[in-house]
Amino acid sequence: MGQAIATAAQHKGIEIGGQVDQGDDLATALASSDVVLDFSFHEATAKLVDACAATGKPVIIGTTGHTEDERSRILKATETIPIVWAGNYSIGVNVLFYITEMTARKLDASFHPEVIEAHHQFKADAPSGTAQGLVEALLSGRNWKRDRVIYGREGITGERPDEQIGVHAVRGGGIIGDHTVLFAGESERLELKHQASDRQIFANGALHAASWVLAQTPGLYSMRDVLGLT
After folding, report:
1. Could you tell me if 198 and 92 are in contact, meaning their C-beta atoms sit under 8 angstroms apart?
2. 78 Cβ neighbours under 8 A, 6+ residues apart
3. Active site members
4. What is the pLDDT of residues 170-211, one digit of tens each?
5. Which segments of 70-198 are extended strands (E)?
6. C-alpha–C-alpha distance, residues 85 and 206, integer Å
């Protein structure tokens, strides 16, 4: 992601103040930058955010997998600086989250929601974080509890209840990332779909968030805030 952001920044005329990896000079990079983008490892984020809070630099966080202690430390910094924190910075995906929640709210329980995601053969986790985000959108839209979610089906499963969300993961080849939300009614069905053809979309979204956050007051923000999806 660091390389993708550097490439996207060059195309957009944005100057990279510094690129920091383990052992690099963080202080010098912070001094020459207006905003910091973190796509690193969960153990590094809290220390980086502390340094940004001390110097008044807004942060864009794309790193995931933080412990509760790390998360609390990061959230404490939102009292001092604005932070955008998202698991997926694709603009299209974040619009899909919003549309999914709104659609789930408008359609009644006779429209059965299913989430299907597909990724390349090397992806280690399933379902994807984006699929989990779609599940959260469905749960919010339907006002259901998490026990309504099932992952895959096998054997004699019986009749599908109305209040259920099925989640399915496909792995193979070089698929970058496909996500579909299916609302299956008795005589009609609605599909909401996002297909990624280039990982550069995540860098573009992160840079969009970085430009937006410069004008914000201290606090925690999501890509929904960045895109004005209220």
Report:
1. no
2. 218, 219, 220
3. 119, 123
4. 999 999 999 999 999 999 999 999 999 988 999 999 999 999
5. 82-85, 112-119, 149-151, 165-171, 177-184, 189-196
6. 10
Instruction: For residue range 62-90, list pLDDT tens digits in order.
Output: 988 889 999 999 999 999 999 999 988 99
State the pLDDT at residue 129: 85
Running DSSP on this structure, what letter comes out for residue 78?
Answer: G
Pick the CATH number of 91-196 from 3.30.360.10, 3.40.630.30, 2.30.40.10, 3.10.560.10: 3.30.360.10
User: What CA–CA distances, in Å, run from 7 to 10, 47, 92, 161?
Assistant: 5, 26, 20, 48
Q: Give dist(CA 162, CA 74) in Å, integer.
A: 39
Supply the mean pLDDT for the chain.
94
- What is the torsional sign of CA 174, 42, 141, 205? negative
SS3 44: helix
DSSP H helices, the chain, are: 2-12, 26-31, 42-55, 68-76, 91-106, 129-142, 200-213, 223-227
pTM: 0.85
